[in-house]
Design brief:
alpha+beta, Double-stranded beta-helix, six-stranded antiparallel β-sheet, about 45% strand, disordered C terminus
Length: about 250
């Protein structure tokens, strides 16, 4: 199914929203609860599936919905359609402070791999599925990196990242990244989990025991403040863990 061609405007800086402009009968799909406002004439319907395959049967929709539950996302996606006359607008807000990234999937061979909580909304025709990392190490130590989302289609999709976004183009290169800081990457990139330094660095370095390794040729998107780090920074437990780690390190060095 060819994706609908939607126009958009991103509003804000640190806490952004994206306003989608729909022509009559155009549709955009979004995560449940992401809608901020919509103009009169736009109708919305919660569906079990992304609508990318109109001929998909009930069992196929059940499987797709079940896969979304595994990722921790809502069972449903919401479809917003302009049933009025003339152009109408609907806006979607990011779930936490950060940056909204517009991505033309046709520029990346119609396929992109993103963190399971990165998808915000997309033009109708975009297929949203899950993909499991083939490396067993990523399953045990990669955190959110084990279960990823795959976006497929020829239209425009919007993903959300925490903090500042860094775009990198790898040309047969390797980059080591904190597992939570990955937003997305082209499927031409090989993704694995590797040990971070020696024992002392792993325990006291503060960078985690394992890092994600991205290899190959293709584009990657990174975020400076994933939601997991944000929660840890503001929670009392996170502060206590940092104090305990600091005390252990001082004892170790004495």
């Amino acid at each position: 199914m060819q994706s609908h061609e939607v126009d958009y405007k991103i509003i804000g800086h640190d806490i952004q929203l994206v306003e989608i402009e729909l022509d009559p009968k155009e549709t955009v799909i979004a995560e449940a609860g992401a809608m901020m406002y919509m103009e009169e004439g736009i109708a919305f319907e919660t569906k079990m599936g992304d609508g990318s395959n109109p001929q998909e049967g009930f069992l196929g929709k059940i499987f797709q919905a079940g896969a979304r539950v595994i990722t921790g996302e809502s069972l449903f996606l919401t479809h917003f359609t302009n049933n009025g006359f003339g152009k109408k607008h609907v806006a979607f807000a990011a779930p936490y402070p950060g940056t909204i990234i517009p991505i033309e999937l046709k520029n990346y061979r119609n396929r992109l791999i993103v963190q399971k909580d990165a998808f915000l909304c997309a033009a109708l025709g975009t297929k949203v599925t899950i993909t499991l990392n083939k490396r067993i190490g990523a399953g045990f130590f990669g955190g959110e990196g084990f279960i990823l989302q795959k976006l497929e289609g020829d239209g425009r999709a919007f993903v959300h990242a925490g903090g500042t976004v860094v775009e990198r183009q790898l040309n047969n290169e390797t980059l080591m990244v904190d597992t939570g800081c990955i937003v997305g990457f082209e499927d031409s990139i090989d993704y694995s989990i590797e040990q971070a330094g020696g024992l002392k660095s792993m325990v006291f370095g503060g960078e985690g025991i394992f890092l994600a390794t991205l290899r190959g040729t293709g584009k990657i998107w990174l975020q400076s403040m994933p939601i997991s780090k944000m929660i840890q920074a503001v929670s009392p437990r996170g502060k206590n863990v940092r104090k305990e780690s600091s005390g252990l390190l001082n004892s170790f060095l004495q």
